[in-house]
User: Which sequence fits this backbone?
């Protein structure tokens, strides 16, 4: 099985208002139905982690949820980070950068 980290962003078009909160909520409700996929919401999108086939399936379901919430058109941006040389995770990637910042602030190098 291949685990991936992906970032997805939905841009609903053809909506009555410029606000996207209801559409994001609909997409995230789908994620809550899939405990096999971990996720982190951030202000500009959502990062998802899991087995590749699960991530692809959940992104498709999220996309459909945005349409079901009333969007007439949806632009979907999906970036996938698939690493096969060693295991990684969302939290590991963030921890690694934060550790690097600590070393930079103290003038240390690795």
Assistant:
């Amino acid at each position: 099985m291949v685990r991936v980290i992906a970032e997805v962003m939905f841009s609903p078009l053809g909506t009555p208002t410029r606000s996207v909160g209801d559409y994001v909520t609909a997409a995230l409700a789908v994620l809550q139905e899939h405990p096999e996929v971990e996720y982190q919401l951030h202000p500009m999108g959502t990062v998802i982690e899991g087995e590749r086939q699960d991530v692809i399936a959940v992104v498709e379901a999220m996309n459909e949820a945005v349409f079901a919430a009333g969007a007439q058109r949806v632009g979907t941006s999906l970036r996938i980070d698939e690493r096969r040389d060693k295991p990684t995770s969302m939290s590991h990637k963030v921890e690694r950068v934060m550790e690097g910042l600590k070393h930079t602030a103290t003038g240390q190098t690795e």
Q: What stands out?
A: The mean pLDDT is 91.
